[in-house]
Amino acid sequence: MCALLAMIGRFLPEREPARPGPHEMRRILVIKFWGIGSIIMSSYLIRSLRNARPGVHITLLTLESNRETAMFLGGADHVETLDISRGPISVIQNIFSMLMRTWRGKYDAVLDLEYLTRFTAIVTFASHAPIRVGFYARGFWRGKFHNHRVPFNPYWHVRDNFLNQATILDLKGETPAYIEIDPGEDGRKEAKKLLEELRVTKRYIVINPNAGETSLERRWPLYRFSELVDRIYREWKMPCLIIGATNEWETAEAMVRKTTAGGAINIAGRTSLRGLAAILGGAAAVVSNDSGPLHLASHAGAKVVGLFGPETPVLWGPIGKDSSRIKTFFRNLDCSPCINIHNMKTVTCLREGAECLMEITVDEVFNALRELIGPVGESS
């Protein structure tokens, strides 16, 4: 479809890809479909755009499944979504409807934050905005629908890659070093009610053994998580709340079944995003694979331990209030990180299993927790 539209595009009038003048920017569309962590990181860009042009109207286009996240984070004036959760006919109808709304939006600029999919290049084409910004990587053809192409630098944090799209247009304003997520009163009430139902009356640790729906190889082995939970409960008597989405309940439950000391409680799928943010922010610490909840936790003010292997914390490390609240593990083997923009984040492990994660021991993670919360889990 990109190839077909590229041919059609040759016959359409093209506006000059000029940079925006001081009074020429009224409506901006920011596109980010996939990844809760990415949605969180895009909020830095949105705030930067807002500070550069206070009067601009910013729309965030994302998946319907991310609506709660986008509304929760705020920043954008409007959230436009695409629902791809139903049957193929419905999905096709929703795509065409979304493309028409994008075209009618009459945006002055489109910032496409996706760096893997060609689909957003088509959305960019449909907007026919005079300024269209997107990531470019040699060997990954996207139809040349972006008239301002920005390199995706794998040695920069993803937040800085996103901000670079504003920089290239001279639209980067003051950017906060850290955005703290407030779950609000509703989120705190929901978390309190759930903790009371679970009879969790003392400090707890949150464990995320999941890694979203893509690149499942990012998961530390379940038995390692179970061993960690057992050690936490035996030595500190602190309960561990096992989190995950509704479709990750089985994984969380399998981890719980592997524990022997008790103290593991499966709450996967039992909270809203606000409730989860409150639970994460109220935890003594959070241990998570490289995934969205890791970023939600760090932005909710939690102390976090992040486990990386196929991906690198250089690109996806959690951002916290200060570095003393964050511990990350990354072995930096000769074969890792092995997923990147050039291979569509597909893991092609050269070893027998993900040694980059297997080499992270329970002792190391437990000691990292000890450094974060104190030798017996009693200090703040």
- Kindly report the average pLDDT value: 88
Summed up, the domain count is 2
- Note the run of SSEs as H and E: HEHEHEHEHEEHHEHEHEHEHEHEHH
Poorly predicted parts? none
CATH class of the largest domain: Alpha Beta
Instruction: Write out the CATH superfamily name of the largest domain.
Output: Glycogen Phosphorylase B
Assembly context of the chains: single chain
**Named CATH topology of the largest domain:** Rossmann fold
N-to-C CA distance:
55 Å
Spatial strand arrangement across the major sheet: 3-2-1-4-5-6
Number of E strands? 12
For the CA atoms, what is the radius of gyration?
22 Å
Shape: globular
**Shape-level CATH architecture of the largest domain:** 3-Layer(aba) Sandwich
Main structural class: alpha/beta
Quick one: biggest sheet? 6 strands, parallel
Helix residue percentage: 25-40%
The tally of helices reads 14
Task: Give the percentage of residues in beta strands.
Answer: 5-15%
What does this structure look like?
The chain is of the alpha/beta class and 380 residues long. It has helices at 2-9, 36-52, 67-73, 88-104, 119-127, 158-167, 184-197, 222-236, 249-257, 273-281, 292-299, 313-316, 355-358, 362-373, and strands at 27-31, 57-63, 78-82, 109-112, 131-136, 148-151, 205-208, 240-242, 264-266, 285-289, 304-307, 326-329. The strands form two sheets. A six-stranded parallel β-sheet has the order 3-2-1-4-5-6, with helices on both faces. α2 packs parallel to α6 (158-167), α2 crosses α11 and α8 packs across α9 (249-257). The longest helix has 17 residues, at 36-52. The model has no long low-confidence stretch (mean pLDDT 88).
